[in-house]
């Protein structure tokens, strides 16, 4: 419902009449829709990937399908972030932000590769690498937002400030809860000499329906990240395509100072 409202709002906004901006915002809009749809599916049929546990007894509750949908959704989400960050970086002429925007999608593609390795092999070490890459991307986004926020006009700064709060929360959560959780699981498996699956064994296993398990012991650690993933992250994804236009939004003082710097370089 919220995504439909954002779609209507998008088509009514005059700020997106510029053909180039509109082209990229339409891509963002559909990326947002795919992320929302993916989260809707996974919230109805939640799965704990490596343990092969689920809540709903359904042929759709298998790890391979769930991980495939998650991969597409997460690549869509990071594409949203990359496009808007690139737009803002260009508008403010911040090379660091532009470089980060170009790094985000390849980095998360690498993270997804480790996610698939973890899912197929049931080895939490892959999850540690995956979540660490997400945390690193969050840190780079946070630094970019800190650099960008002071240089935009007031009406644009409000949105970046909200995203700044989200980025801080994301980084803190990843570094204090998510990554340590997977490290503790990997260490426990290592101490217990757990035998991991080969990739072919894991693929065959992942295509089978998951085992229904409603035990609180299983879901206690999953609930925090799932709750944030299926709510806050969804709201952020819906807001990004209709964010203010950041092309040519640099404050006059910033433009003057950058022109002075350019002149000094030429001299």
Question: Please, could you describe this protein's structure?
Answer:
The protein is mostly helical and 267 residues long. It has one domain. Helix content is 75%, strand content 2%. The chain has eleven helices and three strands, in the order ααββαααααβαααα. Strands 1-2-3 form a three-stranded mixed β-sheet, with no helix packed on it. A hairpin with a 4-residue loop joins strand 1 (47-48) and strand 2. The longest helix is centred in the middle third of the chain and has 38 residues, at 154-191.
Topology:
Layout lengths: L1 H11 L6 H26 L2 E2 L4 E2 L8 H30 L2 H27 L2 H25 L5 H38 L7 H8 L4 E2 L3 H4 L2 H8 L2 H8 L12 H15 L1
Parallel strand pairs: 2-3
Antiparallel strand pairs: 1-2
Helix pairs in contact: 2-3, 3-4, 3-5, 4-5, 4-7, 5-6
Provide a short characterization of the protein structure.
The protein has 267 residues and is mainly alpha-helical. The chain has helices at residues 2-12, 19-44, 63-92, 95-121, 124-148, 154-191, 199-206, 216-219, 222-229, 232-239, 252-266; strands at 47-48, 53-54, 211-212. Strands 1-2-3 form a three-stranded mixed β-sheet, with no helix packed on it.
